[in-house]
Design goal:
Helices cover about 20% and strands about 35% of the residues. The protein is of the alpha+beta class. It folds into three domains: about 80 residues, no CATH class; about 60 residues, Alpha-Beta Complex (Type Iii Antifreeze Protein Isoform Hplc 12); about 55 residues, SH3 type barrels, CATH 2.30.30.760. The strands form three sheets. Strands 1, 2, 3, 4 and 5 form a five-stranded antiparallel beta sheet that branches. Strands 8-9-10-11-12 form a five-stranded mixed β-barrel. The longest helix has about 45 residues. It is elongated. Its main location: periplasm.
């Protein structure tokens, strides 16, 4: 084999060695950053509970690739500095005491629950039917007031104000009982249940108290709305 061939082979060998070495060096910091992100996410999962019937999603923000972190020879330490609400964005402090570095990692937390939402734009005055409604997973921090899990809870109720497609239906968007509606008044005591007809004197949604007038006695009583067109009175 000629000297020129030897030189060519040595050049190729050292070239490949330099390539693999540079690749290893450049990938090591990224591996460290990935580990920091993963550690922050797993820590958040231990301190934030998944909601019953719902879902929990946790995602750490991407860290600056220019950040150089040496490999930690011990398990990374995690904490939540300061007084933070464990909803929305949480900042996790990830540190390595042996290497003397620490990183603040923003982590996005979403708690999702099944909610009844508008399957299409709903106009004021519309009476809700099954085709108007669909159940979707909605982030809990965007939910206010009375919300609903099952379409059957509100089918037949009337829309009080316009609702956009995809918006969760809230108690103040509808009236399960509207003023001047004919309602069933349910009353019970000592195992005796009485059902009579009456008239609602105001609007209301599920669980709200309104005044109703008994159709026969004309007596006005307070009752709790327990369904569409239904009011329960406790004596």
């Amino acid at each position: 084999m000629t000297q020129r061939t030897h030189l060519t082979l040595l050049t190729i060998f050292f070239g490949l060695l330099a390539f693999f070495f540079s690749t290893f060096v450049s990938s090591a910091p990224q591996n460290s950053l990935d580990m920091v992100q993963h550690t922050a996410e797993e820590y958040v999962k231990t301190i934030v509970k998944s909601p019953p019937k719902g879902q929990l999603t946790v995602k750490a923000a991407h860290l600056d690739s220019r950040l150089k972190l040496s490999t930690c020879s011990e398990p990374l330490k995690t904490s939540v500095p300061g007084k933070q609400s464990l909803t929305g964005n949480i900042t996790v402090l990830v540190s390595c005491s042996t290497e003397g570095w620490q990183v603040y990692v923003p982590v996005r937390v979403k708690q999702l629950l099944p909610r009844v939402v508008a399957a299409k734009p709903l106009a004021r005055g519309a009476v809700l039917s099954a085709s108007d409604l669909v159940v979707q997973m909605i982030e809990t921090r965007f939910q206010r007031g009375v919300v609903f899990e099952h379409p059957q809870q509100i089918i037949g109720s009337k829309v009080k104000r316009n609702v956009n497609m995809g918006d969760a239906i809230q108690g103040n968007d509808i009236c399960l009982v509207c003023r001047n509606d004919a309602v069933l008044i349910k009353a019970g005591r000592s195992g005796l249940n009485i059902v009579t007809k009456g008239t609602a004197l105001s609007d209301g949604s599920l669980g709200e108290q309104i005044r109703v007038q008994n159709a026969k006695s004309k007596r006005v009583v307070d009752g709790i709305i327990t369904g569409v067109g239904e009011v329960t009175v406790n004596f």
